[in-house]
Amino acid sequence: MKVDIQETSSTQRVLKIEVPAEEIAKEYQRAASDINKRVRIPGFRPGKAPLGVIEKQYKENIEEDILQKLIPAYYTRAIKDANITPLQMPFIQDVNLSKGAPLIFTVEVEIRPQFELIPYEEIELAKKDSDITEEDINAVIERLRDRLSILENHEDEHSIVNGDYVVIDSDVFIDGAPFEKGRIDKHLLEVGSKTFLEGFEDKLIGHKKGDTVEISIRYADTDQRKEFAGKEVLFRTNIKEVKKKILPDPDDEFAKDVGGFANLEELKKRVAEDLKLQKEALNREYYRNEVLKKLLAGTTLDIPPSLVEREIHHMIHNAKQGGMIQSPGKEMTKEEEEGLKKECGPIAKDRVKGFLILDTIAEKENIEVTSEEVDTEIKKLAISMNKNPEELRMHIMSNKEAMAGLRSRLREDKTLDLIISKAKFQAAA
Asked: What pLDDT, in 10s, does the model give residues 369-379?
């Protein structure tokens, strides 16, 4: 076998493979003999027809048989001898086969690029604060108090102020005509929250339970609600109830109501621990992103097109599955999909580049993912997805692509964490 290898780019090789003529002659005889045993030729007993007759009548079948056998075999030998690991299925072309000559064919393969790693030890990172303050803890306690709050009625003579809650009914009129579809019944509204119609809440301030307030709002011509666009809308609003929010006292009884804590100090201790874990997780994600940015910015390499295409396909598939880019039951047009591919292109290139860099560092540092680490991550995923851990594990284990993706992500995270452990931290400005 002769193999001529051309390096057309840092990520592509073209192999011109030549199989000796004597091998081809043997294969012609073998293939013809196999066919001779299976077919009946008029005038000849089964299996006794001259091979020349078989080769003439079944030329295409013989050549297809030879090519199916020899091309994969010699291609595999060629890339093994050349120490080439293709990234995808080979593109075979220029196949030239005849009985008295060598078989010649060309194979185009894409490979991983060779590149220089930047010095990733002692990458400089800005140190992120991970301390938990009393203000942080109190902010959580206040949110918990708000969650356990109740609404009580104000006295009837109370005048509405910001922070009060009101229950209202409203009849709606557009340009003076009743608009029944717009009627509001028993709507609870926090005054001053700015969660209702713009300017509406302010008009309620100073009024009392039982008052009827006429609130006029002019809608913009561009308003999405076509029936209101460019119109003067009147809300004839009856204030049914006025309420105040009552927060529980931050005491030991409150701590028991929150989650069975023995006292307030125990609750605060748990809050501090949770905040510490959250802050450390956020900081770790920040450091990982910063390391990846520096690796991407400092590394020059040619990105294999096939990996980019694969990543774009993966991104679009995930977006479709999540209902992020199309409505249920509605297919994307070809133009829409092409536009999305262009939009995903730069992100996909960075992801592939990051994968190649981190994978190379992982190989250099002998970083591997253990079965225990996979199981731990699946349990975390199950909790976040509210799924049964064992069912999720079986689902992932039965899906080779899902398992490979999980292991790859864990390996990347371990690699980034190793780099972070060697980083040179500087005090944040």
From this structure: 999 999 999 99
Confidence of residue 407 (pLDDT cuts 50, 70, 90): very high
Nearby residues of 11 by Cβ (< 8 Å), 6 or more positions away: 110, 111, 112, 113, 302, 303, 304, 305
Return the amino acid letter for 51: L
pLDDT grade, residue 329 (50/70/90)? low
What Cα–Cα distance (Å) separates residue 113 from each residue in 37, 299, 348, 418?
A: 49, 12, 17, 23
C-alpha span between 396 and 398 (Å, rounded): 5
Instruction: Find residue 86's DSSP bridge partners.
Output: 111
How far is the C-alpha of 233 from the C-alpha of 9, rounded, in Å? 67
Rounded percentage of the chain residues whose pLDDT exceeds 90: 63
Q: Are 158 and 242 in contact (CB under 8 A)?
A: yes
Cβ-proximal residues to 159 (8 Å cutoff; 6+ apart), any chain: 205, 206, 207, 208
Cα(353)–Cα(428) distance, integer angstroms: 29
User: Crossing angle for the helix pair 400-421 and 334-364, nearest 10 degrees?
Assistant: 50
Residues 6+ apart with CB under 8 A from 256: 262
- Helix 264-298 with 134-147: angle, nearest 10 deg: 110
Count of other CB atoms within 10 angstroms of residue 19: 21
From residue 286, alpha-carbon distances to 293, 305, 348, 355 in Å are 11, 29, 20, 18
Q: What is the DSSP string of 26-42?
A: HHHHHHHHHHHHH---T
**Tokens standing for residue 67:** 């090519």
Pairing of strands 232-246, 150-153: antiparallel
CA dist list (Å): 211 to 28, 156, 214, 306:
101, 11, 10, 70
Residue 223 DSSP label: -
Q: Measure the CA–CA gap between 96 and 82, rounded to whole angstroms.
A: 22
CB 140 within 8 A of CB 275: yes
Hey, what amino acid is at 278? Q
CA 173, distance to chain mean position in Å, is 47
From residue 315, how far is each of 112, 310, 312, 399 by CA, in Å?
Answer: 21, 9, 5, 18
| Residue of 83, 73, 82, 80 lying closest to 105 (CA atoms) | 73
* β-bridge mates for residue 7, sequence order: 13
Q: How far is CA 429 from the centre of its chain?
A: 33
Structure confidence at residue 134 (pLDDT): 96
Q: Which two tokens stand for residue 209?
A: 């339970």
